[in-house]
Amino acid sequence: MERTWTTELGPLCGRRVLLKGWLHRLRRLSSVSFLLLRDGRGVAQVVVHDPALARWVAGLAHESVLEVEGTAVAEPQAPGGVEVRDPRVRVVAAAAAAPPVELLRPLPRAQLPTLLDHAAVTLRHPRRRACFRLAAAAVRGFRDVLRSRGFIEIQTPKIVAAAPEGGANVFAVDYFGRRAHLAQSPQLYKQAMVGVFERVFEVGPAFRAEPHDTPRHLNEYVSLDAEMGFVRDHGTVMDLLRDVLAGMAEAAGEERDSLELLGVAAPEVPGRVPSLHFTEARSMVATALSEDLDRELDLAPAHESWLGDWALREHGSELLFVTGYPMARRPFYTHPDPRATEWSNSFDLLFRGRELVTGGQRLHRYEDYVAALAARGLDPEPFHGYLEAFRYGMPPHGGFGMGLARWVAGLVGAANIREVVLFPRDVARLTP
Amino acid sequence: MERTWTTELGPLCGRRVLLKGWLHRLRRLSSVSFLLLRDGRGVAQVVVHDPALARWVAGLAHESVLEVEGTAVAEPQAPGGVEVRDPRVRVVAAAAAAPPVELLRPLPRAQLPTLLDHAAVTLRHPRRRACFRLAAAAVRGFRDVLRSRGFIEIQTPKIVAAAPEGGANVFAVDYFGRRAHLAQSPQLYKQAMVGVFERVFEVGPAFRAEPHDTPRHLNEYVSLDAEMGFVRDHGTVMDLLRDVLAGMAEAAGEERDSLELLGVAAPEVPGRVPSLHFTEARSMVATALSEDLDRELDLAPAHESWLGDWALREHGSELLFVTGYPMARRPFYTHPDPRATEWSNSFDLLFRGRELVTGGQRLHRYEDYVAALAARGLDPEPFHGYLEAFRYGMPPHGGFGMGLARWVAGLVGAANIREVVLFPRDVARLTP
User: Fold this and answer.
1) Model confidence over B229-249: pLDDT tens digits?
2) Which H or E run includes A44?
3) Residue A27 C-alpha, separation from nearest chain B C-alpha, in angstroms
4) What are the C-alpha distances in Å from B147 to residues B140, B226, B389?
5) How many Å apart are CA A287 and CA A293, to the nearest integer?
6) How far from each other are the two terminal CA atoms of chain A, in whole angstroms?
7) B199 contacts on A by Cβ (under 8 Å)
8) Which chain A residues touch B152 with a CB distance below 8 Å?
9) What are the structural domains of chain B?
10) What is the ipTM of this complex?
11) pLDDT (tens digit per residue) in A377-397
C-alpha cells in the first residue's frame, strides 16, 4: 500500500490508508485511546478501541517510529477533520527511552539552552519546526523575486584572504600553513560579479568572530545577498529590496499551517516603505527620548525600537528605511552622498523595530577604492585581486545583505535569534 | 528612456533603444566600425559610420562601461539578428587600461592559472560566464525537483566539532580559543533533520583539507545534499537521484544560449539508469584492462572512465550507478547490505566516466552507531549531540551528496574542475 501523509487524509475518507511517522502522543481515556502520529508534515489522530493494542502502544517510548494502517474517517474534532480508525500498528524503530524534552506539549516545557543542547530531537516539536518551514519559504521568496528580475545565483568562497568588513572580527583558518579566514560576507565577490552578470544573488553562510553574546547576534549566520549594476543610487536598491521583501512575505503567507500553529501572520509590505534620513531619525529619537545624540554616529537598539513604533504609528508600516548613515561608520566600499560627503548612499531597513537589512550604493571607480583604503589605513595588498574588477570598467552599483534568521525572528516574534536557527553557533556554543 | 537588454532587441526593430554595457570589442573597417557592446545577458552589435565617433571609441580601453542610444534594425548577420544604428555613445565608467586577458576573442587566449588569477575580470568572458549560468540552472533544477517532492531546504552550520567523514582532512578553526573545524559535509545534520521533516536538502559549501592537487578536487566546493526517511534501501535514493538529475538536465536545456556558445548539449537522463554491483564492475574492469583487482576495495579514475565508456556503449547512457562498495571503505554511518555485510547499501553515480554523486542508505539504529564508531576506533564523544537523533526514533533513511562543479564540468567537458568554479580554492590558491 502507498504511504499517505497525515496532511493528505481529507480526500481518502472511507478508505484504508497507510501512515508512517513518530509516536507523538498517546492519550488513554477509560474506553478509548488516541494515538497522535506525527510525520514530516503534520499530525494525525488514530483511534484505538482495542485495550490490548492501547496497552501495547503505551509500552512504547514516545518518538518510536511506527507504521499505522487504518481507515480514514471524517471527524470534525480531529486535527485536519479526519481520524484513522481500526488501526494495525507496526514498530519500525523503537525509541530507546523518553526524549530529553517532552515533545507532546503544545509549548515545549524547557529553557532555550536545553532545547538547543538537544536540537537533534527538540527540532521535531511542531512549533519548533514550523519556524524552519518559514525560513525555507523566505529563501524561496527571496530567490523567486530575484530570478524573475534576471538575477543569477552564485556561490562564492568562504575561505578567503581579505576582510572587507574590517579585520578585527574574523575567524582564522590554518590553510595549509598559511593564515586564511572565514568570509564575513560575500561583499567584494558579489560586486566583482556585477561586471559579469550585472545582477547576482547568493544564499550562504557568513562568519563573524565577535565575542559578544546578545539575543540578536550569532557567530555564523545565513546571509541573503544581492547586488546589481547600473543603479541610480541607493534608491534603486531600496526599490528592489521592497519587492524582494514583498515576495518573502507572500511566500510566508503560503505556509498557512505553520503561521497558524505559531499564531502569527505574514507581515504586510507597503507599496512604499517609509524612509527617514539618519539625521532626521536621530533627531526624532533625541527629542522623543530626551537624549543628546548630536554626536552619535549610529542608532542603538532602543532607538531602532522607538523608530519601529513610530513607523507603525505614523505610517502603519512594520518596515522603515533609515538612509544616509555617516560614512565614518560604514565600510570602505560605501558610496558617499555626492551632495554631502560625510553622509553615505547607504541604508538600514528596520523590521518591527530591529535592523534586518544593510545595503547601499558602492564605490565603483578604482581610484576611489585606492583612496578609501588609504584613508582608513588599510593595506591594499589583500584586496588586489578584487580591485581589478573596478580597474577594468564597473558601472554604478549597489546591493544589500540580510540575515535570514533576523527575518524569521521578526516574523514569529522570537525574543532570541537562537530560537530560529537549527544549530546556532555563539561564543559558548559549538555543538550540536 | 528605459534600458533595453541586448538579448531583447528583437521586438524593438525600428525604435530608438538605450543599451548599457561594456565595450567588448571594436572592429574598424575602412568605411564602417562595429562596436560590440556586452551586457549581463548577451552582446549587441552597434554600427558606427561616423569616423569621428569611431576614432573616439577606439581611444577607449576595452571593458569601459558605456550607454549607447540608437535605432534597432533587423540585420540577419548581426548577433541575435538585430543591430543598432545611428548611435550616440556615452562613457559611464572608463576602464583604466586594457584588461589583463583579452576578453574579445571567441576563446580566451590565456592559461588557466592566468584566468584564475584575474578571475574578477576574466569571468566576464562570454564562454567563462556561460558555465556559471549552467551552474545556476543546475541548482535551480535540483531544488525544483526536491521541492516538488516535499523536501524542505535547510542550512546547517559550517563551523563544527565532529568530523563524520574522518578526522584527517579537516581545516582547523580557532573558535574563541577552542579547536573547531570546517564541515566536510552536512551529513549528520541532514540525517538528524530526517527526524524533523523526513525530507530535506541543502546547497552549501563543504571543506576538505586534502593537500593533493588534481584536476578533479578542490578544498572548498559547493555540495548539493539531500536526505529522506522511510526508504526501502539505497534503491529508493537512487530512484530519487535519477529524477533529480533529470530535472537538472532539463534546467540545463533551458539555457540554450549558454549551451550553444559552449557547443555542448544537455545530457540525456535515461528513465532507468544502468547499475552494476561493485564486484561486477571490478571484475569487468579487471578483465577488460587485464588487471588483478581481486583485493581492490575502490575503483581508480581509469576504471571509472572505462565503466563510463561501457555504459555508453552497452546502454547508450552517460550515467552509471555502481552499488555495494565495500563497507571497509565507506564512512561509519553507511548501512551494510543485510544479505552480505562486507558490502554496503551505498552507491556512486558516474557521469561521463567520472564520480559525480555518492549516496546510500544510512544506519538508523542508535546501537548500530555505537558499534560502528567502536569498530573504527572513533571516540563517540564529539558525535554525542547527533546520535541523540537515532536514540529517539529514526526510520530507515538515506540520501546523497553531489559536487555542483563536477556536474558542470561533466556538462561542459571541462578537463579541470577549476574552470567551472568562480573563485576556486586549492592547496596553492587562496585568492582572489
Assistant:
1) 999 999 999 999 999 999 999
2) strand A43-48
3) 20
4) 10, 11, 24
5) 9
6) 37
7) 40
8) 132-133, 136
9) 6-98 (2.40.50.140), 121-420 (3.30.930.10)
10) 0.97
11) 988 888 988 899 999 999 999
